[in-house]
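In the design runs reported in the main text, the only information available to the sequence generator was the tokenized backbone. The following block is the verbatim input for one such run; it is reproduced so that readers can re-run the procedure and compare outputs position by position.
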């Protein structure tokens, strides 16, 4: 028997639920990045149909089957299979480029950085709100604002274990995790900024989507159950 393969430096965990289109785009993007042999991709899939799992397998990535759509639980299940020194929790509809990969490589060289995410990029959905990018950077980097899941959390694996992972929340798991990550310290927000797909905004309207997201954040802060919020958010899906 030959020597054991060296663990990858990065494990990418992608939670998925009935979204083969976004998953295919994400897996193609990661496959096109340099040094693919040094990375590990894990898809934590809660889809009822086998399409997403079959797609992941054709891309040669690790597949973790989950019984129900619960993003917090799915990402924990993926992390439990991860071997990388650095974990990246990435939404399938969020863009990822070689420049983002290089920023993550830089994190490994700074032991003071335990976790974080990328700065948020405002896109064509909000042409009159681009000025908010600067404010968002200030709130995120200097004032300890909330980090959201579509900013792609990264965490050193041992630190993720110390934090106890994500709460088993089907929604708002990112806000809860952000609080604990911030409180523990060692957080950095990286460039280049990262953007997510505009599909939901295109379907429902940018302003309607923004108002709805703000309302859900408020409901969560007021104590509404993440299970209830998940049901409301995905009604009609």
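Verbatim output:
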């Amino acid at each position: 028997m030959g020597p054991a393969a060296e663990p990858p430096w990065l494990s990418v965990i992608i939670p998925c639920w009935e979204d083969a289109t976004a998953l295919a785009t994400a897996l193609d993007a990661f496959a096109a990045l340099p040094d693919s042999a040094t990375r590990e991709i894990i898809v934590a899939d809660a889809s009822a149909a086998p399409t997403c799992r079959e797609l992941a397998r054709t891309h040669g990535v690790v597949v973790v089957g989950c019984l129900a759509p619960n993003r917090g639980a799915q990402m924990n299940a993926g992390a439990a299979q991860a071997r990388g020194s650095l974990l990246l929790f990435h939404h399938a509809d969020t863009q990822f480029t070689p420049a983002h990969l290089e920023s993550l490589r830089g994190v490994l060289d700074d032991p003071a950085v335990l976790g974080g995410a990328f700065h948020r990029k405002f896109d064509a959905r909000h042409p009159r709100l681009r000025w908010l990018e600067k404010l968002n950077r200030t709130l995120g980097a200097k004032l300890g604002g909330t980090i959201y899941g579509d900013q792609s959390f990264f965490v050193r694996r041992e630190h993720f274990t110390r934090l106890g992972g994500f709460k088993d929340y089907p929604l708002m798991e990112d806000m809860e995790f952000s609080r604990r990550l911030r409180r523990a310290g060692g957080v950095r927000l990286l460039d280049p900024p990262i953007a997510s797909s505009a599909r939901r905004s295109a379907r429902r309207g940018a302003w309607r989507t923004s108002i709805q997201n703000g309302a859900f954040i408020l409901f969560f802060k007021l104590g509404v159950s993440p299970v209830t919020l998940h049901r409301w958010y995905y009604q009609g899906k």
